[in-house]
Design a protein that fits this description.
Strands 9-16-10-13-14-15-17 form a seven-stranded antiparallel sheet, with no helix packed on it. Strands 7-6-5-8 form a four-stranded antiparallel sheet, with no helix packed on it. It has a two-stranded antiparallel sheet with strand order 1-2. It is mainly β. Strand 13 and strand 14 form a beta hairpin. Helix content is 5%, strand content 24%. The protein has a single domain, classed as OB fold (Dihydrolipoamide Acetyltransferase, E2P) (Beta Barrel).
Length: 276
């Protein structure tokens, strides 16, 4: 997906790069496959802010995406590639042979008119959802399940791709985009191919108005606040006191490991790569 650049008749337009949407073939979603999406603007049931810097934004409808891919043995034809405002990936509208319509995450290379299928008897080609035990080692996959039948939980963002590197007994080893190598049961399903919209990470917002329309409110840096309002505030220095970035409540904000799930630690063979 190529990016679209703009003529620099304003300072904002000079640096903005957005999607060209050339792969989109249908503008309006299927009404039966959408539902109302309520927003909380970062507030809880008592009306207090629990997540800062959220609120406003364009009104959206949620697209019901088939993450289970449980219509086994029934071929489907790709009717359209659509835009989804709720995620970075594109959606593919499938028309099944029995007349049912469903949305799936659109893999890179899937086009209108292509045929896809799910189930243990499907071929290992782009767009097909197959149990991991039937996928050849070394294949690039996405939309990976963690529990059989629960639906895809891993590798769902634009450009995401995992690799099946080994299978032994009832478990397989999958290398995730973060570099983490994780054990997954062979009866879990995965979709062959890489998630589409590869240039999503290269987009540049360019202006504050676009951010507001995305539902993100302004953020004020801690170093420009007073010491009363933020640990980084006050003084002449522009770096955090003590050498560690902190939240307004004095908790470590960067570099602190937050993974605390001993139940699933046994399924992680190699941790994710450290970010530079």
């Amino acid at each position: 997906m190529p990016l679209k650049k703009y003529k620099a008749y304003t300072p904002v337009r000079r640096y903005r790069q957005s999607a060209s949407f050339e792969e989109i073939t249908k503008d309006t979603p299927e009404k039966r496959l959408t539902q109302r999406k309520l927003r909380t603007a970062g507030r809880n049931a008592q009306g207090r802010v629990t997540t800062r810097h959220r609120g406003g934004g364009e009104k959206r409808r949620y697209r019901i995406v088939d993450l289970r891919r449980d219509k086994d043995g029934i071929p489907a034809r790709v009717a359209a590639i659509e835009y989804d405002p709720n995620r970075s990936a594109r959606l593919a509208l499938l028309n099944y042979k029995d007349g049912e319509k469903r949305y799936i995450l659109a893999p890179d290379g899937l086009k209108v008119g292509d045929s896809v299928m799910s189930g243990p008897d499907a071929e290992a080609r782009v767009g097909n959802c197959i149990p991991i035990e039937n996928i050849p080692t070394g294949t690039t996959v996405h939309a990976v399940e963690l529990e059989p039948g629960k639906g895809a939980q891993l590798v769902r963002a634009a450009g995401g791709a995992a690799q099946l590197i080994a299978k032994e007994g009832q478990y397989a080893q999958v290398r995730l985009p973060s570099g983490q190598i994780r054990i997954v049961h062979v009866r879990c399903r995965a979709t062959v191919g890489q998630v589409g919209n590869l240039d999503h990470e290269n987009q540049k917002i360019g202006g504050a108005g676009h951010i507001r329309r995305m539902g993100r409110r302004p953020q004020v840096r801690g170093v420009v606040m007073s010491p009363r309002d933020h640990p980084h505030g006050g003084g002449e220095a522009k770096s955090p006191v003590g050498g560690m970035a902190q939240t307004p409540w004095g908790k470590p904000a960067m570099g602190l490991k937050t993974r605390r799930n001993p139940r699933s630690d046994r399924f992680v063979i190699k941790p994710a790569k450290k970010r530079k």
